[in-house]
Specification:
Rossmann fold; 24% strand; Methyltransferase-like protein 24 isoform X1; 3-stranded mixed beta sheet; Methyltranfer_dom; membrane
Length: 322
């Protein structure tokens, strides 16, 4: 074969290679676009997405360490699409928080683990404080007049509580010792209590009366009653409060749980409680970052969101006739 023929053959192979790579790239972009659409919109209009099968795979796995979502591919709010199979994070030998744990902690809380088809916002609009997400897929749909809500942390925004009263006709018990109000009844369905939640029963340095969730349920006569929705925005007290809930065994009586998580885990117990939530059947169906509370990590130099509202459903209720 002549030299000219060899060059033509090489040119032909190069063209074929470039075309092939272009086709693969376009296919990947199309698949990623579909995946974004599914995970952002609840897979409502995508026939090939088998929600039942996804639920079976997601819900029946147990976890002993913090994991990214059990899916091989998942939607990450910080990094858009991330194909991650990294090992679960662990504390370093000296007990300090490592950059690996920080990255995996934020990644975990921002990854969806449950495909909620009917999600609504209860309270203030999408970008404002006071509103929280609810999953209304059965069996999490609220039964008007038969639903019970605990709302910890009110400040001056009652939009979530008013919504649960007026729109869902739920009984709502609100708690906030920081606003200086005595117990009162805001409406026929809304009860305010001058109490706060913590990891133990105590009066703190500000003279606030604080109790564990189990103690509060006993005080209100709800010891064996299921909470349809438990909401906490309690400025760092979520960590000791959750540890107490685990010890008391009261989380099995919670259908939906939403909390604002502050900072990153600072000790083994904080990491463990995230693990325990997964083991107890709680799956993340929505996360909202607080864009007004972000900083540059000293460990990773990445932008981190120091407050994230994380919403869970308890999948154990999927197995019950409720």
């Amino acid at each position: 074969m002549s030299r000219q023929g060899i060059w033509k053959l090489l040119a032909f192979f190069v063209v074929v290679l470039l075309v092939g790579l272009s086709v693969l790239w376009m296919r990947e972009e199309k698949e990623m676009g579909i995946l974004r659409s599914i995970l952002r919109n609840g897979a409502a209009n995508n026939n090939w997405f088998n929600g039942k099968l996804a639920r079976e795979k997601l819900h029946l796995k147990k976890a002993s360490t913090i994991k990214p979502t059990p899916l091989k591919t998942f939607y990450n709010l910080a990094d858009d699409i991330d194909y991650s199979r990294e090992a679960a994070p662990r504390l370093s030998a000296d007990g300090a928080i490592s950059d690996k744990i920080e990255l995996d902690y934020f990644r975990y809380l921002q990854n969806l683990q449950f495909d909620c088809r009917h999600r609504i916002r209860a309270g203030t609009g999408e970008t404002g404080d006071g509103g929280w997400e609810m999953c209304l897929d059965p069996p999490y749909n609220m039964k008007p007049g038969k639903c019970l809500v605990y709302s910890f942390g009110i400040s001056t925004n009652w939009s979530f509580d008013d919504y649960m009263d007026k729109t869902r006709n739920c009984t709502v018990h609100c708690f906030d010792p920081s606003i200086g109000k005595k117990d009162f009844k805001r409406s026929p369905n809304i009860y305010f209590h001058n109490l706060g939640i913590s990891g133990r029963n105590e009066t703190n340095g500000k003279k606030w009366q604080l109790y564990t969730l189990g103690s509060i349920k006993r005080l209100l006569g709800h010891e064996n009653v299921t909470l349809d929705y438990l909401k906490m925005d309690v400025e760092w007290s979520e960590w000791p409060s959750l540890q107490a809930m685990y010890r008391e065994g009261v989380l099995s009586q919670v259908k939906q749980f939403a909390s604002e998580f502050h900072g990153i885990p600072k000790k083994q117990a904080d990491v463990d409680i995230i693990n325990r939530l997964y083991e107890l059947g709680f799956r993340i169906f929505y996360t909202k970052r607080n864009f007004y509370n972000r900083a540059t990590s000293r460990l990773t130099q990445r932008t981190i969101y120091r407050c994230m509202e994380v919403h869970f459903v308890n999948i154990n209720f999927l197995k019950q006739d409720v």
